[in-house]
Amino acid sequence: MNVYDKIKELADGIQSDLVACRRDFHKYAETGWLEMRTSSIIARKLTDMGYEVLTGDQVCKKDARMGVPSDEVLEEQYQRAVNQGADPEFVQRTKGGMTGVIGILRCGEGPTVAMRFDIDALGVIEETDPSHLPAREGFGSVNPGFMHACGHDGHATIGLGVARVLMAIRDQLHGTVKLIFQPAEEGVRGAKAIVENGHLDGVQYLIGSHITDKKPDDPATVIPGSYGSLATSKYDVVFHGKSAHAGGSPHLGKNVMLAVATAVLNLYAIPRHGKGQTRVNVGTVHAGSGRNVIADEAKMEIEVRGETTELNQYMTNYAVSILENSAKMHGCTCDLRLMGAANSLSSDVELAERVARVCREKLDMPVSETLRSKSGGSEDVSYMMNRVQEQGGQATFMRVLTPEAGPGHNRRFDFDEQVLSNAVKIFCGVVYDIMG
Ligand SMILES: [Zn+2]
Question: What domain range is 121 assigned to?
Answer without folding.
Answer: 3-229+345-435
